[in-house]
Specification:
- The protein is an alpha/beta fold.
- Helix content is 41%, strand content 15%.
- It contains twelve helices and 13 strands.
- Strands 3-2-1-4-5-6-11 form a seven-stranded parallel beta sheet, with helices on both faces. A two-stranded parallel ribbon has the order 7-10. Strands 8-13 form a two-stranded parallel ribbon.
- The termini are far apart.
- The protein binds nicotinamide-adenine-dinucleotide (NAD).
Amino acid sequence: MGCFPIKTVLVTGGAGFIGSCFVRQLIGDGGYRVVNLDKLTYAGDLASLGEALEHPRHEFVRGDVCDAELCARLLAKQRPQAVVHLAAESHVDRSIDSPADFVRTNVQGTYTLLEAVREYWAALGEAERETFRYIQVSTDEVYGSLGSTGQFTESSPYRPNSPYAATKAAADHLVRAYHHTYGLPTIVTNCSNNFGPYQFPEKMIPLMILNALDGRRLPIYGDGNNVRDWLFVEDHCDALRLVCERGKVGTSYNVGGHGERTNIEMVTAICDLVDRFAPGLAHSPCRSLIDFVADRPGHDRRYAIDPKKCATELGWRPQLDLSTRLEQTVRWYIDHREWADRITSGVYERDRLGLVESR
Ligand code: NAD
């Protein structure tokens, strides 16, 4: 991180999919000390940290962002120059089944962390207060659904449609308020759908890869024409680092890589890659496993990010194209079957979640 007033970063949710990638990058690039606060829910896994886990500049703390006393104690002891808040309940289907967990972690947890950070930041010297950063890692889902044209910009109105998106939106609003009311140097990032290694297999891309490998049905919600704007996780984490380094306080950044695809396009591409990289499967071609199932309640039709601000202000863009990244990802899940089997074992059977019973 260039000008480098930041040496110690408190990362929350750093054992999750995106958080672990971010921690691996901060540790791998050298220079940073990372304090990693994570509750290790079903979605958190220390193995996803790889060599960063035992690195002398990495300290893992198992704990809950809703624990005010723990947040205050950690900040006072570790003295970070930046806090990057990723900890969240993150799966839309689960938010339909149990919104309470989402309200607790995503809203109450963000509030609790913000309060602790506000107190810590207010007691810093003037120069440290100036360079301190609080980064809220959020999603494009807060903007709701697009029609067939247009893109979300940083000034698009918030119109969340799922309980997940609503809790992320509420948290973003709190962050904004803490900047305007208390002067806390905050920045919000709103990123599109991520994919890559170590993503919990309830999410569409790893679920489809693993089901295709196992000859299980590939459940496509609705007509399969919902559009998501896909971004490889390492590119997202590059953007987060640039935001810490050069982002303008009190603003937000949309992060996306022009990766718009319909779900059916993504799934057929995955099928073809599985056929190619795992030849000889009894059930191939894997496209024969595609199964159109009941749509997700309130399913947003289309997301698309306008990443101009990130590109012009931060000089960010994705390093490789989407099809190369998808190839790498399919290969990774084929090569890491034991990881996927272990993380899901006993907690997730790849069954359908998030269907509201009709009354
Ligand atoms: P994830 O579900 O893979 O990981 C979440 C991590 O947070 C897990 O390690 C979990 O143990 C931890 N956690 C959950 N509740 C906690 C609590 N109360 N206290 C401390 N730790 C807790 O999620 P992800 O996909 O890595 O997403 C990370 C962040 O990025 C989230 O805030 C999410 O909203 C946001 N985001 C995700 C995407 C995406 O496509 N995955 C896109 C944009 C933004």
